[in-house]
Amino acid sequence: MSNFSTYLQLGYEHIVSFDALDHILFIVAIMAVYQLKHWLRMIIAISFFALGHSVSLALAAAGVVDFEVELIEFLIPATIVFTALINLTKGGRDARSRSKYWLAGIFGIIHGLGFSNYYGMLTMGESTYWQALLPFNLGVELGQLAVVLVFLLALLVYEFFLNKKLRDWSLFWSGVVFGLSLVMCIENWPFNF
Amino acid sequence: MSVAQVHHQEGQWQVSLKVFSDDLERAVGPLLDDTTAQADSALARYTRQHFALTSGDRPPGRLQYLGHESEVNLTYLYFYIPAPAQPHSVEVKHSFFMELFDDQVNIVNITVGEELETAYLKEGRPRQKLRFNP
């Protein structure tokens, strides 16, 4: 197996797994307010999330990432809780709003920092930025794309066969995401009080 | 997760293996606070149990453990294994921490001359054969 495809597979499996539930929940929270006709906006929002990751990757590659792991592990589900709550507001539900893009980008940086442990592990000897981190990150993005496609398929079934009310769809998924990520927040509470 | 770099040099597989210190301590006990000699003896035992390189039909060469280094949350283990002069294939076994974690992934990058091949090992598949062009 080539070096590139190994790290690509590693990144992909890192996302398409139950252990990456936080990542998947955030993608769902971002996508929950869109209908199929908003597919381009969805892609833009997810691209901003990927862009946020890439910023973290660049920071990690430059060796300037040094955050408490416990704090990051709490902040990641906190961003998901926040996004799910935003979905309940009038502005948050508005599929035309561009604030979702920025939210996805900034929170993408925080989610990317969750990988900083892996960045330190992956770079070794000849396996430096181009040989390890780049294919790993590409694999992560491919994994995200797979999650997006599955969610779009579910939305397709919902829109064509079950119901047309986006509000029900959005409320349902935002509620699911809120509940699960709140539990993660509590489990990863980093403060001593 | 762990990553190993293996170089074929001077009739040896020269290996440096990078692991998360937490995982290592969970596998072999809180060694890193112990004296280095005690720590190394337990680390060598665990490494011989979970890492092997077998070339062709030859019996597996005995792993010679050299030592370890720790930095922040990572630990490096260094060792070598006797190798044929010109290996055409090698079977890699690397089952570190698979007894502890279902999702453990171990990557082994092996360089022979200019050629780099990679083994991707996980629970249920701790061995993989790699081939090299002479």
Task: Summarize it.
The complex is a heterodimer of chains A (193) and B (134). Chain A is mostly helical and 193 residues long.
What labels would you give this structure?
heterodimer; A: mainly alpha; 9 helices; globular; B: alpha+beta; three-stranded antiparallel β-sheet; 2 helices; 9 strands; 17% helix
- Unreliable stretches covering 5 or more consecutive residues of chain B: none
The Rg value of chain B, from CA coordinates, equals 14 Å
**Helix content class of chain B:** 10-25%
What is the chains' assembly state? heterodimer
Number of strands of chain B: 9
Mean pLDDT of chain B: 88
What structural class results from the helix and strand content of chain A?
Answer: mainly alpha
Task: Please state roughly what percent of the residues of chain B sit in beta strands, choosing from under 5%, 5-15%, 15-25%, 25-35%, 35-45% or over 45%.
Answer: over 45%
Number of helices of chain B: 2
Biggest sheet: strand arrangement of chain B: 4-5-2-1-7-8
Query: H/E order of the elements of chain A?
Result: HHHHHHHHH
Shape of chain B: globular
SSE string of chain B, helices as H and strands as E: EEHHEEEEEEE
Strand content of chain A: under 5%
Terminal CA distance of chain A reads 49 Å
The portion of residues assigned to helices of chain A is over 70%
**How would you characterize the largest beta sheet of chain A?**
none
Could you walk me through the main structural features you see in this protein, from its secondary elements to its overall organization?
- The complex is a heterodimer of chains A (193) and B (134).
- With 193 residues, chain A is mostly helical.
- Chain A has one domain (3-186).
- Helix content of chain A is 76%, strand content 0%.
- Chain A contains nine helices and no strands.
- Chain A has helices at residues 3-15, 21-31, 39-61, 69-86, 90-93, 99-113, 116-122, 129-162, 166-187.
- The mean pLDDT of chain A is 87.
- By secondary structure, chain B is of the alpha+beta class.
- Chain B is built from two helices and nine strands.
- In chain B, the strands form two sheets. Chain B has a six-stranded mixed β-sheet. Chain B has a three-stranded antiparallel β-sheet with strand order 3-6-9.
- The longest helix of chain B has 15 residues, at 36-50.
- Chain B is globular, with a radius of gyration of 14 Å.
- Chain B starts with a strand and ends with a strand.
- Chains A and B meet through α1 and α7 of A and β1, β2, β7 and β8 of B.
